[in-house]
Amino acid sequence: MRRFIIAGNWKMYKTITEAIELANGLKRELMDCTSLDIVLCPNYIALEEVQEVVYGTSIKVGAQNVFWQKEGAFTGEVSAAMIKDAGCDYVIIGHSERRQYFAETNETVNKKIAHVLEHGLIPIVCVGENLKERESDKTFQVVEDHVKGALKGFTKEQLKDLIIAYEPVWAIGTGKTATPEQAQEVHKFIREIMTKLFDEEFSGNIRIQYGGSVKPENVKDLMSRADIDGALVGGASLKVDSFVEIIKTTEGITK
Ligand code: PEP
Fold first, then answer.
1. Which residues of the chain have pLDDT under 70?
2. Residue 171 CA to ligand 1 centre (angstroms)
3. What are the residue boundaries of the structural domains of the chain, listed by start?
4. Is 15 helix (H, G, I), strand (E, B) or coil?
5. 3-class state of residue 122 by DSSP
6. pTM reported for the whole predicted model
7. Which of 46, 94, 130, 168 suits a disulfide with 109, CB 3.0-4.6 Å?
8. What is the homologous superfamily of the domain 5-251 according to CATH?
9. Would you please indicate which residues are annotated as catalytic (active-site) residues?
């Protein structure tokens, strides 16, 4: 039985003051939601403050990115040790916005995963096709490249806590959601890739989130599908009401 995991990617929104306010609002509403995993991913400079707000609850904190070097002259970058020291448990790696605007590749994603695993952080690895790729029937090929490129060289023991987030790029921040059928089809495919790479027991335990315009109105249909184990939520995680509704709706789903 895989436990649901709902993560909020706050992207480059919220000052430290606003992040503290949002985290406090969520803490008040979500105190009793302990049957699923909840992760808040604010920007780097708000990580520690958000962690202080949720400290002592079951809500966890994650970073939105990381660099793969331990330390050094890498102006503007942040290492896994720094993220861990700020109180984080998770790191989003390879988000499509990072691939699109900051030239991330399967190779850099792979290096980042190796680095965060060394520091005991859990990677949330984003994969997914863009609109052109979907329209030219390349969805499965792209997703397979992303998954295989990200996981290359690791043992199943190293990856036991891995989270994959399937995020069709055409559905991120656009209001267009993949239908539950479209999402389930790709999630099942990702699980099959992991079975081939490792084995059925491993792939059966790995949680795969869906991300792309998840909202209170569509979350139930998406989360009810067999291979969808949670959501990576952008826009709707920036307001207490919508994020709480997404989480409470998911809590009520049994599969
Ligand atoms: C995301 O940021 O990963 C995301 C899925 O955003 P949105 O929910 O706004 O589409």
1. none
2. 8
3. 5-251
4. coil
5. strand
6. 0.97
7. 94
8. Aldolase class I (3.20.20.70)
9. 95, 167
